[in-house]
Every structure is written in structure tokens, then in C-alpha cells.
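Q: Given only this backbone (660 positions), what sequence would you predict?
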């Protein structure tokens, strides 16, 4: 006779196998093998409340191996999250369902992060653990541990092979993130077969070198051993913990367990029946779960609700005893706090001299830091160059988690994912930074930022051939087009102090869209016509008196060039309008009437000017227009020589307009 705990574990397996079989698509291997570890964690060691999935002090759980999504959906259904019904499970991977192929944040209650690209969940979990450590250092008082929770992440061999996990775990060990616990589903199988074909290192020694506590569970079906390992991990608060759990992929399906074929395809009707026989499941009916199993999960859910209720009582007493902390808490969790900057004239002040937009960005950041005490971030070892250091705000470290300057080391991939984790946790406004050319290393994570609707800010400096002497390896001619191609992602390339302020205002007030600030190393002149209209993405920065015969459209450092070319053309009797286009994405969000007022369809002679690729400009210049852009990689020389070499001169702009 199976115990109720064994049946509760097998319910996860059965629901997962049935859903994947009905969909004729999915990954049964992970849910079948990791079900005991997931059940033991969620039932006995993790603080969460199905009735309140966003309780601030809940433990976080990230399924880094997002292909095993049915493991998570089965848990959420059995615990009663968000009324995720049996019908929802039957619609796994179907259009509009609450159970998409990979877990999606904001789509299904209880999903803490969108995962799927392997390793990214590991790095996002590191960000969540960093957020917990920082917020605990800010808010906790003696006898009032109002921020006191763990971050658990479950992943397999693929997650450990991806380089991003090593980047992130190296930093996690350095920072001593004692409340980060990694559950490693170690089944020695990948899609192509045994992991021995490509993955033979001693993972535990690697994690030991990173500074993790290593724990081993020899039998992935041994609930007691799994539970003891989790408790040992929770007890060591000086370092993160790594629990290797030896499992069999596809456990319970005799024809498939331990084989690569269990990973990414339905088991087959006969094999599902054989699995239910092997597990001594009481019914062959699809999606059948005994009532006593549902009752067991309901009792567990009640206990979880009591844990939150006790925290709520403590938090109320904390707010009464420390009203200043109550006020600060509300400030941290006020998503509209940054909107106060709109009325602040000093925030929008124009610079008095030519300055690089990276410098202007640094000044803006430091201006905001007191108004937004929850603003924190850093660079991939480039803060002095990116100008992202918050003066006097301290460095985040193992000894000083209260610091707001994050040092990611030379780890752009992990940095971007950790930034996502910081934002996913809640209560913080995070930014990450590197050179624009290295945005290549951040794109998979930036893509997830956009997909999850996380308003993470990316600061990218050294934005064009203006990098100069470093040469084509560091001149990001194609990066702008790549980022502009991302849905729900704002790419801002400002031309001066006012537009830089607009870029930051847009970033820190955004509720659901990440923003990239693309900034110069070289000095740019203050532009007389720049204004808060930059928040519309594109606007008239310098107009002519009559109907324009031509329109020059530019961004960033090329706006000044466009204004000077307009002046030269005006002397020859040619009426020209200059449009600054700091953010195409925002411009596209404006009304058709506004876009027509800026770029009237009747004016077909248009020239785009940008020291980057012309990809994407076609929709604005049309068939009758032209682009003065980069058609090749850059070169190594002082930037003052590179711009004329590649045609970015007043004379060339005038010539192109005349040809039109």
C-alpha cells in the first residue's frame, strides 16, 4: 500500500505524463525524475501560500529547466494556485492556455520567472537571492526579520553546461549568498544521449571552487534524504548550497526510464499505461488523482497560509514600532515613485557645455539616487567607464549587502540575468551596464526581460564608431538594429542632457518595458531644441518656417550634424526639418496623427543619419529617401578622423539632400 506522500509524488508524475501525452508534445523526463525532490521541497521546506502567490516574504522557486514545465504546473494545480484547474492541465501547450510549453511569468499564478533557455533560471535565482540579502539588510530589525526567505532553483545537466550558470555561481559564491539553494537534477542524460559524450567534469568540485556547500542525495526517490539535505542547506547561511540529487530521467516508465528518449517526447499511450501499473496508480483514466491526494495537498496549503498569516502579524507590529521603516517600505514598493521627477526642473536642466552622454547619464543616476532609494545596479567591471557608480551608496558585498553598487565582474551574461532576478524579486529598480558592443552577451537575457515585461534598465556606452582607436572589435555598428528588433523593448540613443534625462525618466517610470540607454564616449553639444518631447521617441528638434522640402532624421551624436546641415542647406534656400529620433520604439507607440505631424507623408525626401547600421531606417526614409549610415565595420583611428572618413560631415549630408 502506497503512503499518501508516495501517492502525492506520483500524482505529479501521472498528471505530467497525461498532459504531455494529450498534447502530443512536451518533456516528460524531468517531471518524472524530479517529482520527489519537487514534492519534498514544496510540501515540507518551502514557505509559500497558494492563496497569495505574491506574498513578499515567500520563498522563491525557479524551474531553470523550463522544458520540464509540467512538473511546475502539476504542483501549482495540486496545491491550488490561482485556480489552475485540471482542465487547464488538459490544455497543456494549447493556444491561450494557462499551461504554455515553458513557464511564463505573469501568465500563470505561481510562476516566478519565464524560463526555457537553459542556465538563465540559475542566474535569475542568483539575482533573487541578492535582492533578498539587500532588502534584509535595509529593513530587518532585531526580532523583526521581515525579509527572510530562501531562493530555490531546480535545473539539470544542461543548465550546468551553459556558461551563464558558471558566471552566476562564481559571483554567488563570492557574495556568500547563504539563502540560495540549487537543486541539481543529476540524471547523466541529455538529448543526444549520455552526458559522457560532452560533459565529464566533476561538477561538485567546480561548485566547491565557487564557494558553495556541496550536498549529495544518492537516491532521487528518497524523500527523507532529500529533506535532510535541504535542511542542511538552509542551516548554512555563510555560503550558497548545491544539492546534487541522483535521479533517473523518466522514472516510472519501464521502457523509457534512464534513456535519452524520455527527455523531449511523449511516452506513448502504452507506456503511460505501463507507467501507471509500475507506480501502482489506482486508475488508468487520464488525469485521475485520488481525492485523498487532493486532501493532502489542501492540508499542506492551509499550513502554508498560516505561515504567511504569522508573518503578517509580525509585519503589522513592525510597522507600528518603526513607522519610518513602514514609510520606507512603501517607498520601495511604490512603482510610481519616479514619476515625481516630472515636476523637478533641475532634473530636466540642459548642460552648459559639451559633454558625453555617458557622463550626463552618470550625473542623472546620481541625481535620482536619493529620490529612489531602491535604485541599485552596476557594470560588468566597467563602472568608471560606464559612469554607473552611485556616489556614497556603498558596494554590495558579502560583508555589506546594504550597498547599492553591484560589481558583476566581467560577466555580462550573468549580469543581465541577475538584473532580471533583482526585478523579479520586487521592491527594487535595477540597472546593468557594459559597452554597447558587448550587448551581444546580454541579448538572450534582454529578450527575456522584454518577454517577462520587466522594466530592467540596460546602460550601454561607447555607442558607435565614436569609440575610435579601439577599432572595429569595439565599434557596435550593428547592435542598434538588433535591439530595435526586440518586441517590447525601448532603445534610447539621446543627443544631449535633456534627452538623456528623458531616457532615464522613461526607464525608471516604465511599468512593463525594459529600456536600453545607448550613450557616447565623445562629447556632444547641448541642442537648443531638445525637450521632453523626446519621451515620444521622435520629435521636431529644429524646424523651418515653410513646409519642409526635406527632412533629416537622426539620433544621438548625429543630431548636431543634422542641425548644422540644415543650416547650410537653408543658406542655399532649401527648407529642411530636423527630427531627433532617440527612440524608434516609443515613436511607433504614438498616434498616427502625431507621427504624421512629425514626418508628413507628403515630404518624401528624407535622410536618416546615424553612425550605425541602416537596418530599420527604411520605414522612415521610404523608397525616395536615403541613409547616411555605416555600411561596413568601423576602423581604428581617432573618432574625429573616423566620422569624416565614413561620410558623417555637413558637406556629405548637404550633397545627399541635393541629390534627392
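A: Predicted residues:
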Amino acid at each position: 500500500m502506497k503512503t499518501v506522500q508516495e501517492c502525492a509524488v506520483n500524482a505529479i508524475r501521472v498528471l505530467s505524463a497525461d498532459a504531455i501525452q494529450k498534447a502530443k508534445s512536451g518533456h516528460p523526463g524531468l517531471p518524472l525524475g524530479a517529482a520527489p525532490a519537487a514534492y519534498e521541497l514544496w510540501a515540507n521546506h518551502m514557505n509559500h501560500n497558494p492563496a497569495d502567490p505574491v506574498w513578499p516574504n515567500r520563498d522563491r522557486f525557479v524551474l531553470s529547466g523550463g522544458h520540464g514545465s509540467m512538473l511546475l504546473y502539476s504542483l501549482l494545480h495540486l496545491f491550488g494556485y490561482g485556480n489552475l484547474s485540471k482542465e487547464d492541465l488538459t490544455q497543456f501547450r494549447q493556444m491561450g492556455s494557462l499551461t504554455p510549453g515553458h513557464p511564463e511569468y505573469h501568465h500563470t499564478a505561481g510562476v516566478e520567472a519565464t524560463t526555457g533557455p537553459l542556465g538563465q533560471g540559475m542566474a535569475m535565482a542568483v539575482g533573487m537571492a541578492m535582492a533578498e540579502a539587500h532588502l534584509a539588510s535595509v529593513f530587518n530589525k532585531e526580532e523583526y526579520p521581515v525579509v527572510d526567505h530562501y531562493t530555490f532553483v531546480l535545473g539539470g545537466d544542461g543548465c550546468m553546461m551553459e556558461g551563464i550558470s558558471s558566471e552566476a555561481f562564481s559571483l554567488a559564491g563570492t557574495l556568500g549568498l547563504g539563502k540560495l539553494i540549487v537543486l541539481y537534477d543529476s540524471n547523466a542524460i541529455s538529448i543526444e544521449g549520455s552526458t559522457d559524450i560532452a560533459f565529464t567534469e566533476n561538477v561538485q568540485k567546480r561548485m566547491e571552487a565557487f564557494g558553495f556547500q556541496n550536498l549529495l542525495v544518492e537516491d532521487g526517490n528518497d524523500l527523507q534524504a532529500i529533506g535532510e539535505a535541504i535542511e542542511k542547506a538552509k542551516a548554512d547561511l555563510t555560503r550558497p548550497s548545491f544539492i546534487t540529487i541522483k535521479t533517473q530521467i523518466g522514472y516510472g516508465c519501464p521502457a523509457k526510464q534512464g534513456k535519452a528518449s524520455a527527455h523531449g517526447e511523449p511516452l506513448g499511450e502504452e507506456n503511460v499505461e505501463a507507467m501507471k501499473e509500475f507506480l501502482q496508480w489506482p486508475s488508468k483514466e487520464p488525469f485521475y488523482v485520488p481525492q485523498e491526494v487532493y486532501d493532502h495537498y489542501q492540508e499542506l496549503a492551509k499550513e502554508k497560509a498560516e505561515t504567511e498569516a504569522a508573518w503578517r502579524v509580525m509585519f503589522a507590529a513592525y510597522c507600528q514600532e518603526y513607522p519610518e521603516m513602514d514609510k520606507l517600505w512603501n517607498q520601495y514598493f511604490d512603482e510610481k515613485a519616479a514619476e515625481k521627477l516630472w515636476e523637478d526642473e533641475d532634473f530636466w536642466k540642459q548642460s552648459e557645455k559639451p559633454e558625453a552622454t555617458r557622463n550626463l547619464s552618470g550625473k542623472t543616476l546620481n541625481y535620482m539616487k536619493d529620490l529612489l532609494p531602491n535604485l541599485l545596479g552596476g557594470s560588468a567591471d566597467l563602472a568608471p567607464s560606464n559612469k554607473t557608480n552611485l556616489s556614497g551608496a556603498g558596494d554590495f558585498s558579502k560583508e555589506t549587502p546594504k550597498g547599492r553598487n553591484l560589481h558583476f565582474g566581467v560577466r555580462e551574461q550573468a549580469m543581465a540575468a541577475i538584473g532580471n532576478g533583482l526585478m523579479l524579486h520586487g521592491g527594487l529598480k535595477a540597472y546593468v551596464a557594459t559597452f554597447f558592443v558587448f550587448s551581444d552577451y546580454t541579448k538572450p537575457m534582454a529578450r527575456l526581460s522584454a518577454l517577462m515585461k520587466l522594466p530592467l534598465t540596460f546602460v550601454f556606452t561607447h555607442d558607435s564608431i565614436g569609440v575610435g582607436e579601439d577599432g572595429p572589435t569595439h565599434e557596435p555598428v550593428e547592435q542598434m538594429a538588433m535591439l530595435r528588433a526586440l518586441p517590447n523593448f525601448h532603445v534610447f540613443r539621446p543627443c544631449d542632457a535633456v534627452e538623456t534625462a528623458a531616457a532615464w525618466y522613461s526607464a525608471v517610470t516604465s511599468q512593463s518595458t525594459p529600456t536600453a540607454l545607448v550613450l557616447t564616449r565623445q562629447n556632444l553639444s547641448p541642442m537648443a531644441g531638445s525637450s521632453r518631447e523626446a519621451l515620444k521617441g521622435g520629435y521636431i528638434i529644429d524646424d523651418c518656417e515653410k513646409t519642409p522640402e526635406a527632412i533629416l532624421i537622426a539620433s544621438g551624436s548625429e543630431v548636431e550634424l543634422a542641425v548644422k546641415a540644415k543650416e547650410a542647406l537653408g543658406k542655399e534656400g532649401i527648407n529642411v526639418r530636423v527630427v531627433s529620433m532617440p527612440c524608434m520604439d516609443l515613436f511607433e507607440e504614438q498616434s498616427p496623427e502625431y507621427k504624421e505631424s512629425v514626418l508628413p507623408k507628403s515630404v518624401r525626401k528624407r535622410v536618416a543619419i546615424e553612425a550605425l547600421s541602416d537596418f530599420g531606417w527604411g520605414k522612415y526614409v521610404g523608397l525616395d529617401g536615403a541613409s547616411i549610415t555605416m555600411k561596413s565595420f568601423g576602423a581604428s583611428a581617432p573618432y574625429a578622423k573616423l566620422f569624416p572618413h565614413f561620410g558623417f560631415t555637413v558637406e556629405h549630408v548637404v550633397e545627399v539632400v541635393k541629390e534627392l
